[in-house]
Amino acid sequence: MADKRDYYEVLGVSKTASDDDIKHAYRKLAKQYHPDNNPGDESAAAKFAEINEAYQVLSDKDKRAQYDQFGHAAFGSGAGAGAGAGGFDGFGGFGGFGGFGADDIFGSVFDMFTGGGSRASRSNGPQKGESVETEVRITFEQAVFGVEKELNVTMKETCKVCGGNGCKPGTAPKICPKCGGKGQVVYHSQSLFGTVQQVSACPDCGGTGQFIENKCPGCRGTGYQAERKTISISIPAGIEDGQYYRIRGKGEPGRNGGERGDLMVLVRVSTHPVFKRDGVNIFSEVKIPFTKAALGGKVHIQTLDGDFEQEVKAGTPTGTVVRLRGKGVPNLRSRGTRGDHFVTLTVDVPTSLNAEQREALRAFEETMEGKSPYGERKKKGLFH
Ligand SMILES: [Zn+2]
Ligand SMILES: [Zn+2]
Predict the structure, then answer these.
(1) How far is 321 from 300, CA to CA, in rounded Å?
(2) Candidate from 7-16, 114-123, 181-190, 234-243 with smallest mean pLDDT
(3) Sign of CA dihedral 182, 187, 192, 193
(4) Buried b / exposed e across 271-280, counting CB within 10 Å, b at 16+?
């Protein structure tokens, strides 16, 4: 892999740039190369990862000082091929997901990293397999409390006929004549800065360094076959619509002994007829008859944990919000804690009355002559 570019160069700022200059340059570039604005453009995605990596270092005073002194060497094996995956670290707020062990949740901002990490130029070294993306739809309640799901996913698997080497059984691969088995070819080109040397994957063998004379009939020499499989996943309580759930090692097989890619599951959550959700909090509306609002009494409230009776005070105004602590959604970032459920009580005024009810209300109205049912401040005239 070619040497890493200078972080200042990546962001297009001088070595003496202020924090504000760096932030400004980063925002501009991040917007320009954001995968949402460049769908399917892998070079933009790679550039975006590079910009993020540079910004993580240059926006941190300590890291920047280290980088100024030691360059990329300041960050250990920084010149390796894992820049895509490394780009996750240091994003604010995402350190707290450690509770999920090997699996991760990503907001939709991280969509572009699906398949990342394997975009580095091919070589003979071990490479992580591609990530496989799939989608699952779950109910509102399943998102709140978590659910076990079985997914049917079709993905690349090692060919069972040839065991992955792409050769007809009984034959063996030969060394690629173009690259001599190295898997890489070196190009030289002229630029303003002199001769530039660029290393690319060998076009003939695709980086494997091998040449297959007798191709395997099972995979036509690719070493892979499409396989449909069922994968059980356990979606954690508290996941939100549009988030990705990553199951490590359930993607496509790696190359040359590399680990498998990941399965990235886009979670789609159905809406609920009663409950609305905002993060860990639940919102709902309960209608109460105007008589109950005036007299007080018990009101039936539906919650995620079942229904119960809530006592309302006499003289409860419409729009009163009842907060049910800990009846919201489990917090993905903090196990064992739940958000709240906010119930808005809306006073329901009847639209049709029978003769008896009308009579009763007229009698009530007469008792109120000269008085406001809302207290002393309001004048009678306002209600006629
Ligand atoms: Zn095969
Ligand atoms: Zn080759």
Answers:
(1) 14
(2) 114-123
(3) positive
(4) ebeebebeeb
| Ligand 1 center to 227 CA (angstroms) | 13
Contacts 24+ apart (CB under 8 A), 332-336: 332/97, 332/105, 332/236, 332/237, 332/238, 332/239, 333/96, 333/97, 333/99, 334/96, 335/99
DSSP character at residue 375: -
C-alpha 199 to ligand 2 mean position (Å): 13
Instruction: Please state the domain extents for the chain.
Output: 1-80, 276-383
How many residues in total does the chain contain?
A: 384
CB atoms within 10 A of CB 55: 22
172 Cβ contact list (under 8 Å, min separation 6): 165
Domain spanning 1-80, CATH class:
mainly alpha
Of the listed ranges 191-200, 222-231, 255-264, the least confidently predicted one is 191-200
Q: How far apart are CA 251 and CA 103, in angstroms?
A: 13
Ligand 2 centroid vs 200 CA: distance in angstroms? 10
HSE toward the beta carbon, residue 345, CA cutoff 13 A: 26
Bridge partners, residue 289, by sequence: 348
Tokens of 367: 């008792």
For 65-80, the pLDDT digits (tens) are 888 877 877 775 433 3
Separation CA 132–CA 260 (nearest Å): 10
CA 47 – CA 55 distance, rounded (Å):
12
- ∠ CA 184-188-192, nearest 5°, is 140
What was the pLDDT predicted at 76?
56
What is the spatial distance between Cα 97 and Cα 239, in angstroms, rounded to a whole number? 12
Q: Does domain 276-383 have CATH number 2.60.260.20?
A: yes
Query: What's the gap in Å between 173 CA and the centre of ligand 2?
Result: 12
Q: How far apart are CA 82 and CA 207, in angstroms?
A: 18
Rounded alpha-carbon distances, angstroms, from residue 13 to 23, 61, 217, 237, 317: 10, 16, 54, 44, 59
Which amino acid is it at 40? G
Could you give the 3-state DSSP secondary structure of residue 196?
strand
196 C-alpha to center of ligand 2: Å? 21
Distances (CA, A) of 3 to 196, 198, 210: 12, 10, 26
